[in-house]
Design goal:
Layout (H helix, E strand, L loop, with lengths): L1 E7 L8 E7 L6 E10 L2 H7 L16 E8 L11 E4 L2 E3 L5 H4 L11 E2 L20 E5 L4 E2 L6 H4 L5 H11 L7 E5 L3 H12 L3 E6 L5 H7 L3 E4 L3 H6 L4 E6 L7 H5 L2 E9 L13 H6 L2 E4 L5 H14 L5 E5 L3 H9 L6 E5 L4
Parallel strand pairs: 10-11, 10-13, 11-12, 13-14, 14-15, 16-17
Antiparallel strand pairs: 1-2, 3-4, 3-8, 3-17, 4-5, 5-9, 6-7
Helix pairs in contact: 4-5
Amino acid sequence: MIKAKAYAAQNPNETLAPWDFARRDVGNHDVQIEILYCGVCHSDLAQINNEWFPGVFPMVPGHEIVGRVTKVGDHVKKFKVGDLAGVGTLANSCGHCQHCEDGLEVYCENGVIPTYNAIDKYRDNLPTYGGYSNTIVSDESFAVSIPENLDLAATAPLLCAGITTYSPLKHWKVGKGHKLAVLGLGGLGHMAVKFAVALGAEVTILSTSPHKAADAEKLGAHHFVVTSDAEAVEKVKASFDFIVDTVSAEHDFDFYLSLLKLDGIHIVVGIPPEGILLKNVGMLQLGRKSIVGSASGGIAETQEMLDFCAEHQIVADIEMIEMKNIHSAFDRMAKGDVKYRFVIDMSTL
């Protein structure tokens, strides 16, 4: 076993604190990665607090992991010692269902194994531990190569916030000739804007906060609409082909569906705890509109996304923090007080 250090929650709702534990030894198809940076996702806080389901404790959060390969198994082909590598939201899947064979491991028919807060039923029935740690061992098929020309720290959030917004844009073939609205300008939203602009769409940010207009312009958005401004909203009624919805709080789906044109698609990537409440089903029927969901992409698509980012020089806008400041970062993140993703410098562990 490999000695490792981390910040972990020993029980639900507890403060993260230093924890020594053991990673599995490097197997024939594994890579060991020295973690240099790890992004902070809102889901880290949600899972520590058991907001979605009972967690596996002790819990080491973190699934936006980048670093350098320090050891490879005897049969590893994708990596060599010294390579930059990353691990995102997935640790394992069954590997043999149709979705896995199609490179869509995140939709594994037999259940995907997340990078943390899970028991790996396909390998050893042991808990998975995430990236708030100094090292991680991953099967090479669930690790991705990080292009050398990208800022490494700012690349970390691409492994969740990035792929979660890139995947639906590619799946629904968003590009030139499309009008797309991004709902919510946070960690996910700012990445959705960058990708949609790079893909050639005409991008509008929908926001409740007028002061975010300057940020929208800096990110490359073509338009900015304050949703409390009735006159501005009227101008964009029935005008969008797509809405990418990144909001993880209760919001009015009927209102946003009214902004879609015929055959418009409302793509849900945020996770509102109250779920989706739709009062006017006729809004769907009379506009032949759709509400759809999308999870983070598969491994091949994540690598495609990273290569796209390297080509277009896209990374996340980040604020670097020390490990000891993780709870103040959680507090600020819950208030939306970050532009747009916290990243932990793991040398401070």
